[in-house]
């Protein structure tokens, strides 16, 4: 089984010194004995003749086509490469000193280098003639270190699939050399990569990683001479990966908008490979791309950036726009998904995104959040109510303690009961018991959008159902809501349980309570004023935090309605109204 992440505690990418812990971890997850032994043998074979033996074979030495990357790169990042350093999310590494295996590099930066995504940025800033020497020099360093099949991160299934797509799209940048031996090595490595993925793709985590691995197999089959025999197998594998990794509405099972954006980019690249290879993209793949775009657009706000869910943040507006434009797909934002789960309420310039589904399965997303029934609210480009957010793929950008706090229910704009998460978060980062079912109804009569949802996350501990109703007026000037706690199942004792309903505010929002203590004035800097009113608890303004698209933390405020839950249940009503 191919490795899926960072070096172990020893700092070694082969992970040999940590084999017993990996076997034990696999046992805890319910992996079969055969799979655990296969995993151990696989890990022990890294950097040995076994791995090279598995990758032997005869290889064609000609590219049939060069697909055009449909996604625009970051010109600023490309210019930085021309000036002598890789720059990625605040990190900087000199191009001449870049070590793909440097343990000091953050996992996110390492993936950026290993996938060769930087070729996209370099191409955005320079012509082939100017950039080829830089690209080939970096690739030669990679080939020396990894072409033989060694290096667990380098040959991780999803990174291998991404690297194939970028090597194919930017072949003119990495194959300009007249060195026949170098060119042959690059092409041999492409085919070796596909052979490797043929064995490990289905062992990659379900969802984006597995889809990416199979996409790499298809790319080699379409653009490398003599590899077309693998196309039907690659397509069958990709369809399996899409079936297991996507909900019927087009959203990933991870329910991560950050991963959804990556999926859209990936499927766009794959479509370009089909076009370059003079093949029609299968209809099911085209449908998957269209559905993925609609789901992605469904979680964007008025500033044309992502809303913050499942450990993600708004990312870059430019990246989102480039990804959607590159698809050529014209899709309306998905507003009423079930599996994807993000209900979209929209009227005029006001948009609300409402999480009306259980958290994703632990195995589908590392760092999943207990955010059920939270929402975000904006007016045009101005965010008003937000979730605290997360670092997305920028691992290591924030302290571990803060990352853990950002996953909690309290870090989202929803209700918490007894200072507990609606879904438990274990010390090892996995999700425990909590929300298993969300009941949902939606009504759009006379221009009014009303969504009612309830979850069972507090039933086991407190015998209570949390129900939330959101109603958006036709003119978008008022969002009213109600949080109800009602008994379910075994009647609990007469103890009093504290509750808190939180509304985290965007950093640009200034807040001040009204004289009666039941309302607040919310002024969006250089924009409009909103009024907030509530009943059913005591209102306070407290400090909060918000993570931006660069994974940097900003101080902000939050409105908190607090009180004590009587045995018979309670109701908390509230309204946001534009002044």
How would you sum up this structure, described in words?
By secondary structure, the protein is an alpha+beta fold. It has 17 helices and 18 strands. Strands 3, 4, 5, 6, 7, 12, 16 and 17 form an eight-stranded antiparallel sheet that branches. A hairpin with a 2-residue loop joins β3 (342-347) and β4. α8 packs parallel to α11 (208-223) and α10 (180-200) crosses α11 (208-223). The longest helix is centred in the first third of the chain and has 21 residues, at 180-200. It starts with 18 loop residues before the first helix and ends with a strand. Mean pLDDT is 88; it is low at 1-56.
User: Which residues sit in consecutive blocks of at least 5 with pLDDT less than 50?
Assistant: 1-56
Largest sheet: 8 strands, antiparallel
- Structure class: alpha+beta
Percentage of residues in DSSP E strands = 15-25%
Averaged pLDDT: 88
Specify the overall morphology: elongated
Question: What's the count of strands?
Answer: 18
First-residue to last-residue Cα separation? 58 Å
What value does the Rg take, in angstroms? 25 Å
Q: In DSSP terms, counting alpha (H) and pi (I) runs of 4 or more, how many helices? A: 17
- Share in helix: 25-40%
Set out the fold topology.
Layout: H1 19-28, H2 33-44, H3 49-54, H4 75-82, E1 85-88, E2 91-94, H5 107-114, H6 118-125, H7 128-146, H8 157-169, H9 171-174, H10 180-200, H11 208-223, H12 231-245, H13 257-276, H14 283-297, H15 317-327, E3 342-347, E4 350-355, E5 375-379, E6 382-386, H16 400-406, E7 415-417, E8 438-445, E9 448-455, H17 459-462, E10 464-472, E11 478-487, E12 497-505, E13 509-513, E14 519-524, E15 529-535, E16 538-547, E17 553-565, E18 570-578
Helix pairs in contact: 1-2, 4-6, 8-10, 8-11, 8-13, 10-11, 11-12, 11-13, 13-14, 13-15
């Amino acid at each position: 089984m191919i490795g899926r992440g960072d070096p172990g505690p020893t700092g070694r990418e082969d992970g040999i010194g940590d084999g017993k812990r990996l076997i034990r971890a696999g046992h805890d997850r319910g992996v079969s004995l055969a799979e655990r032994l296969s995993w151990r043998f696989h890990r022990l074979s890294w950097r040995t003749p076994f791995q090279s033996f598995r990758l032997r074979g005869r290889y064609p030495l000609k590219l049939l086509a060069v697909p055009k990357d449909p996604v625009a790169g970051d010109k600023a990042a490309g210019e930085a490469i021309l000036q002598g350093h890789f720059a990625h999310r605040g990190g900087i590494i000199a191009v001449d000193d870049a070590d793909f295996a440097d343990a000091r590099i953050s996992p996110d930066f390492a993936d950026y280098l290993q996938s060769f995504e930087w070729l996209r940025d370099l191409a955005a800033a320079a012509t082939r003639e100017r950039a080829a020497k830089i690209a080939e020099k970096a690739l030669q360093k990679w080939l020396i270190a990894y072409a033989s099949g060694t290096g667990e991160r380098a040959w991780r299934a999803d990174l291998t699939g991404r690297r194939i797509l970028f090597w194919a799209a930017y072949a003119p940048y990495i194959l300009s050399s007249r060195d026949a031996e170098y060119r042959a090595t690059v092409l041999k490595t492409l085919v070796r990569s596909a052979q490797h993925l043929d064995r490990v793709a289905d062992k990659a985590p379900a969802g984006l990683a597995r889809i990416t691995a199979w996409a790499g197999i298809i790319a080699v089959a379409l653009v490398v001479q003599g590899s077309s025999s693998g196309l039907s197998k690659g397509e069958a594998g990709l369809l399996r990966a899409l079936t297991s990794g996507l909900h019927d509405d087009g959203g990933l099972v991870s329910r991560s908008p950050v991963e959804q954006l990556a999926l859209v980019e990936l499927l766009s690249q794959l479509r370009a490979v089909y076009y370059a290879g003079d093949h029609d993209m299968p209809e099911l793949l085209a449908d998957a791309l269209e559905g993925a775009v609609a789901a992605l657009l469904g979680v964007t706000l008025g500033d044309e950036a992502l809303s913050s869910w499942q450990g993600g943040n708004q990312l870059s507006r430019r990246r989102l726009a480039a990804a959607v434009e590159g698809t050529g797909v014209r899709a309306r934002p998905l507003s009423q998904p079930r599996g994807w789960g993000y209900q979209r309420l929209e009227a005029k310039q006001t948009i609300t995104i409402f999480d009306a589904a259980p958290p994703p399965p632990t195995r589908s997303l590392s760092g999943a959040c207990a955010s059920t029934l939270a929402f975000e609210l904006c007016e045009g480009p101005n965010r008003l109510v937000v979730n605290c957010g997360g670092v997305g793929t920028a691992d290591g950008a924030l302290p571990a303690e803060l990352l853990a706090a950002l996953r909690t229910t309290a870090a989202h704009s929803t209700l918490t009961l007894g200072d507990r998460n609606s879904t438990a978060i274990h010390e090892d980062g996995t999700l425990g018991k909590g929300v298993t079912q969300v009941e949902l109804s939606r009504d759009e009569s006379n221009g009014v959008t009303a969504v009612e949802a309830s979850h069972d996350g507090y039933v086991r501990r407190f015998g209570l159902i949390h129900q939330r109703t959101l109603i958006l007026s036709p003119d978008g000037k008022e969002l009213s809501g109600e949080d109800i706690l009602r008994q379910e199942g075994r009647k609990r004792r007469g103890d009093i349980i504290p509750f808190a309903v939180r509304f985290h505010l965007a950093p640009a929002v200034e807040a001040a309570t009204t004289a009666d203590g039941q309302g607040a004035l919310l002024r969006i800097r250089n924009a409009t004023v909103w009024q907030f009113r509530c009943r059913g608890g005591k209102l306070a303004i407290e400090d909060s935090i918000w993570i931006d698209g660069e994974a940097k933390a900003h101080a902000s405020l939050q409105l908190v309605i607090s009180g004590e839950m009587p045995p018979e249940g309670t109701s908390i009503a509230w309204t946001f109204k534009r002044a």
